[in-house]
Write a structure and sequence with these properties.
41% helix; alpha/beta; Aspartate Aminotransferase, domain 2; two-stranded parallel sheet; Aspartate Aminotransferase, domain 1; 407 residues
């Protein structure tokens, strides 16, 4: 009998095993071998196999397509590395080798930079927050888009620092001209490329031109280019902005291991740029912000490029399948270069979300000013998206969104 990873963990929880005893890495390492590992685990767990029948009668968990997570999790090499480190988790990160210094060195080497050019964060969210702390003030505003990732916006508003939001353009891309018009005197300019939630991307040439023009009119403004979805981009015109950041004052790039690397729960990210630009980020970050397990996970992932290429291909196939199915319903999506779609569902996001949830599919929250028409749908496994599409057909069948050109 085939047992999925989600079903395996559901059984573990319903049987009380997650609460009663440590897993010793057994269930964690079962990813990709759920059928064999499930049988093996129940056999090793003190005769707990008797509870499997009752657990299998529990309601199937819903499919979560709401947080842009990688449904596959990290690769096998990362899982093996993590389980091999469980015995060292009593140590502070600075007492373990390889540690965060080696992670910084590895990141720097991969981008032909120096360790002084890199600052680590507990996910890119910590980096965005400390950037707002360090570079905005009551007199120096934040320039950002709407809609975009809200972390920087929310942090600035909680601090009482002014925020200028520039609505995305007609193709749902960042309005770089509008952001440029508000750049003078800004403390921080937040550029999310690819953008979340609209899934759109700007070319390397467009970002390079934007940075040059901001530097001319407001050289003291810091530009933060968030490339959280970099690994998923398939547009040949796209380029990472890291070379720009390493050679331009007051520019840095944020990256995360939460998305394509499948480590959202590990909380690992980094900033990279010129030494004087990233130094304040490292100074403001919490001490020991990267765990022992997070360090070895990130180090291992960076040295497994074949897994990342396979993940990009997997996501692209599942994304294209879902987009075509939605197109057939008359529900047009923006051109996505991420692991999610931003789709005109012909009704409010709340109505769509509620109808999908009633059939076991979770989709994204509201994203003003498009909450009346658009929903964000994260990409799961192909099997999950096939199930989700069946629900979308039922929920959206009455929709008449109209053709329209895709952004």
């Amino acid at each position: 009998m085939s047992v999925t990873r989600r079903e395996l963990f559901s059984r573990l929880r319903s049987g009380g095993l997650l609460d009663e005893a440590p897993l010793n890495g057994l269930a964690l390492a079962a990813r990709g071998h759920e059928e064999d590992s499930a049988l093996s685990f129940w056999g090793q767990a003190g005769g707990r196999g008797r509870g499997a029948g009752a657990a299998s009668q529990a309601a199937a968990p819903s499919i979560k397509l709401s947080s842009n997570e990688n449904p596959m999790g990290p690769g096998r090499a990362v899982l093996n590395a993590i389980t091999g480190r469980f015995g060292e988790t009593m140590r502070y990160p600075f007492n373990v080798s390889p540690g965060d210094a080696q992670l910084i060195e590895t990141i720097a080497a991969q981008h032909k930079a120096k360790p002084e050019n890199v600052a680590l964060g507990a996910g890119s969210q910590e980096i965005l927050k400390v950037a707002v702390w360090g570079y905005t003030s009551p007199a120096r505003h934040l320039v950002t888009a709407t809609p975009t990732f809200e972390n920087a916006t929310g942090t600035a508003r909680r601090m009482g620092h002014p925020v200028v939001e520039v609505k995305v353009d007609g193709q749902f891309r960042l309005d770089l001209e509008g952001m440029l018009a508000n750049a003078r005197g800004a403390g921080l300019i937040f550029v999310n490329n690819p953008n979340n939630p609209t899934a759109t991307v700007h070319s390397g040439a467009a970002i390079r031109d934007f940075v040059e023009r901001v530097r001319r009119i407001s050289p003291d403004s810091v530009i933060l280019i968030d490339e959280a979805y970099h690994e998923y981009v398939t547009d040949p015109a796209y380029e990472t902005a890291i070379p720009i950041a390493l050679n331009t004052p007051n520019v840095f790039v944020a990256r995360t291991f939460s998305k394509a690397y499948g480590m959202a729960g590990m909380r690992i990210g980094y900033a990279i740029g010129m030494k004087d630009t990233v130094r304040p980020l490292a100074r403001l970050a919490l001490p020991f912000n990267i765990s022992v397990l997070g360090t070895i996970a990130a180090l291992t992932a960076l040295n497994d490029p074949k897994h990342m290429a396979a993940e990009r291909d997997r996501n692209t196939q599942a994304r294209d399948f879902t987009q075509k199915a939605l197109d057939a319903l008359g529900c047009r999506s923006t051109v996505s270069h991420t692991n999610f779609l931003f789709t005109n569902v012909g009704r409010s996001a709340a109505a769509f979300r509620t109808a999908c949830a009633a059939q076991g599919i979770q989709v994204g929250r509201d994203f003003p000013p498009f909450e009346g028409s658009h929903a964000r749908i994260s990409i799961g496994t192909m099997e999950e998206m096939q199930k989700a599409v069946a629900v979308f057909r039922d929920v959206l069948a009455p929709a008449n969104v109209g053709g329209g050109e895709r952004a």
